[in-house]
Design a protein that fits this description.
Layout lengths: L8 H6 L8 E4 L6 H9 L5 E5 L15 E4 L6 H7 L5 E7 L4 H5 L25 H7 L2 H12 L4 H14 L5 H7 L9 H17 L1 H15 E11 L2 H13 L18 E3 L8 H6 L7 E7 L1
Parallel strand pairs: 1-2, 1-4, 2-3, 4-5
Antiparallel strand pairs: 5-7, 6-7
Length: 298
């Protein structure tokens, strides 16, 4: 199955500071690019556990006794590590967002390039899809999704139009959605605004920000002291959560100081964030918005 080059391959795996006999987790297996690089740096007694809820990714499973692939959402990180007899790990890698493969398979409905049913499920076994968001959400709920997750200034108008159109006929396809929202899609900005609309719906369908929060909290429970987190985000909402969590172990507010004015935090950021080179972006356009952050558990 065709998957594109993994984003920021070497910086992301370098960030894990691999120990040959360590135990590592790749929570976004996809095409297995990051996983293969991790395995190439592990010794005979090292171990890699990978997660991917997308059944398409199972075709890329690696035949290696040091490797386990878990076909589950990484929000269940701790549960499935325990299931496989692992209590602590030396490092966790995550490359969030939609894989190139998911974008390139038209019927999955992730890409603005194709006519497709409204789907956008990362887990193809899930019942809830983009169709449900567009056709069943009340106007106020729909407006909030478009505004919060798509950062769309015209969210109120878009939600109103969607509700008016669907009263006459269900909106089942991406083309029907584009037609309904035509007045909000000026030619010179159509692709950018559509990308924001798709992002908002996709985040809602897959509960991406809630899943990310659940995952980040669990990393503190399973990482060994000095264990590393190496995480790639693709939009500001995701990156903000990762940045705040790595800085002070919280998603909002600031940690409390002790009587001496000191703050105890669970993680220490390692270096500054890393973005792809111009060369990598030319080869892999998906990399253009990637931002890698690395942290170490104290």
């Amino acid at each position: 199955m065709e998957y594109h080059n993994p984003v920021l391959l070497h910086p992301t795996v370098d960030g894990l500071d691999i120990k040959p006999n360590g135990v590592y987790v790749d929570v976004t297996f996809g095409g297995g690019g990051h996983a293969r690089e991790i395995l190439s740096r592990l010794g005979a007694h090292g171990k890699l556990i990978a997660f991917d809820q997308d059944t398409d990714a199972l075709a890329n499973a690696i035949d290696d006794p040091r490797f386990i692939l878990v076909n589950e959402n990484f929000r269940f990180l701790k549960r499935f590590l325990r299931f496989h007899g692992v209590k602590e790990v030396d490092g966790i890698l995550g490359d969030f967002g939609v894989s190139s493969h998911q974008f390139d398979v038209a019927e999955r409905g992730f890409s603005t390039r194709f006519e497709a049913d409204l789907d956008m499920r990362m887990n193809q076994g899930a019942a809830f899809s983009a169709f449900d968001v567009i056709n069943n959400y009340e106007e106020a709920h729909l407006r909030n999704v478009l505004f919060q997750y798509g950062e769309l200034r015209a969210a109120a108008g878009m939600a109103k139009i969607i509700c008016e159109v669907r009263r006459e006929e269900q909106i089942k396809t991406s083309d029907q959605l584009k037609t309904a929202l035509g007045r909000f899609l000026p030619k010179h900005r159509e692709n950018k605004i559509l990308a924001q609309i798709y992002q908002a719906i996709r985040i809602e369908v897959n509960q991406e920000l809630e899943v990310l929060k659940e995952f980040l909290v669990q990393t503190l429970e399973v990482l060994k002291p000095n264990g590393r987190l190496s995480l790639i985000s693709y939009h500001s909402l995701e990156d903000r959560l990762v940045k705040r969590f790595m800085r002070n172990g919280m998603f909002e507010g600031e940690p409390e100081k002790d009587v001496f004015g000191r703050v105890e935090v669970p993680l220490k950021p390692v270096g500054k964030f890393i973005i792809p080179t111009e060369e990598e972006i030319k080869i892999n356009n998906r990399a253009r918005s990637a931002k890698l952050r690395i942290a170490q558990k104290l």
